[in-house]
Write a structure and sequence with these properties.
Largest sheet: 4 strands, mixed
Number of domains: 1
Distance between the termini: 14 Å
Shape: globular
Radius of gyration: 16 Å
Length: 113
């Protein structure tokens, strides 16, 4: 997180500091989701914007796994991970909307220098 520490526009940041409750579709229970990064950023006009950021592999963000001819354990696992992630992200979007924040999902494509 050297980037966050060395970027003057980033006023405040933390790793896994925000807790977002979400209902898991696999067991129907409420769990706690800890997004990867909380960030407070000052724009060019001096306005402050708060972000909650999740960093995921692009493969997990693009959409549900394609249904193969043979339903393997790996495929079933990927389907469950996708369903849980979607529930987490929906809860995070609602959480942010209520607090005038923005929710972002970044992949390796966004992080390339």
């Amino acid at each position: 997180m050297i980037f966050c520490d060395s970027t003057p526009a980033i006023v405040e940041w933390g790793s896994e500091e925000v807790v977002v409750p979400y209902k898991c579709p696999t067991d129907g229970r409420v769990h706690r989701y800890f997004p990867d990064v909380y960030m407070k950023v000052r724009d060019r006009n001096g306005n402050i914007q708060k972000y909650i950021i999740e960093i995921k592999p692009k493969k997990q963000v693009e959409g549900p796994p394609k249904s193969p001819k043979r339903k393997t354990k790996q495929w079933k696992y990927e389907v469950l991970v996708y369903a849980k992630n979607k529930a987490k992200w929906k809860a995070a979007e609602s959480f942010c909307r209520k607090r005038d924040m923005k929710f972002l999902i970044l992949t390796e494509d966004h992080l390339k220098v």
